[in-house]
Design goal:
about 260 residues; mainly alpha; Helix Hairpins; 2 domains
Length: about 260
């Protein structure tokens, strides 16, 4: 089959969700990167006029790509109701523009090390997700908070440094209270970061607990192996002693049965 006919055959196949994901994985990752760059530039540079319009166009175009991706995946799902309930975060990613950069996590799925099925690989996958998600969440939350707060009356978060500090202390559930949002949108963002911090703490705790359990299990297995080896060695020694006793008894019995030649 030639390359042209192979492409025609591939194009003639019905569109499935798995095939759609393979086709759009890299384009959507690139769209997420473009969105993050445009949104960062718009907020950090406080764009106005034509520059702001260009950034908004880029943001809206990438948002449209994610809307199309969500609709196609929902339409091609076998059990749409179940798929919808299991992909609420995907709906949030298109309903709340600030969450769209989290689609960059698709790139993490391409790492071969995360395809392993052992416990250590699962922990590695969780660790990577936690680190990447935390970094993105802190950065994007800081951008979003600065975007909605810096021009508000009586605002305490007026620079990116302030917003980044607020995001870090909030997601770690420290919450010094030295900087607090004064707008309704800012408070909604704060709630999301708080929930993310609680979830992050739970994942980290579970990962550490899993690692400790595995280490204890390995030590127990090593101890059991050493104990079995000692038992086997002792059993072998006991068998050797028994054989030696049998041989000794046999020699003693044979000597006792020999006639005494001294009286002849």
């Amino acid at each position: 089959m030639t390359d042209g006919s192979a492409q025609e055959h591939d194009a003639s196949r019905p569109l499935t969700r798995a095939r759609w994901q393979r086709l759009t994985q890299w384009p959507l990752a690139a769209a997420a990167a473009i969105f993050l760059a445009a949104y960062s530039l718009e907020v950090l540079a406080d764009l106005r006029g034509a520059a702001n319009s260009v950034a908004e166009i880029a943001i809206n175009v990438t948002w449209g790509m994610f809307v199309v991706d969500y609709v196609v995946q929902l339409a091609t799902a076998r059990r749409r109701g179940r798929w919808f309930m299991m992909h609420i975060p995907d709906l949030a990613a298109i309903a709340l523009p600030v969450l769209r950069p989290l689609r960059l996590l698709r790139l993490v799925q391409l790492l071969r090390i995360l395809q392993r099925t052992t416990g250590a690989a699962v922990r590695g996958r969780v660790t990577v997700y936690v680190v990447v998600t935390t970094g993105l969440l802190v950065y994007v939350a800081a951008l979003a908070m600065l975007d909605v707060e810096r021009h508000a009356p009586h605002a305490t978060i007026t620079s990116f440094g302030d917003a980044l500090w607020w995001a870090v202390v909030t997601i770690t559930t420290v919450g010094y209270g030295d900087m607090t949002p004064v707008t309704t949108a800012g408070r909604f963002i704060a709630v999301g970061v708080m929930i993310g911090g609680i979830a992050l703490l739970g994942v980290v705790t579970a990962t550490i607990a899993s690692w400790i359990i595995e280490q204890v299990g390995r030590r127990d297995a090593s101890s059991q192996a050493a104990t079995r080896k000692e038992i086997e060695e002792l059993t072998a020694e006991v068998r050797s002693l028994r054989d030696e006793l049998r041989r000794t008894d046999g020699r003693v019995g044979a000597a006792a049965e020999q006639p005494d030649g001294s009286g002849s």
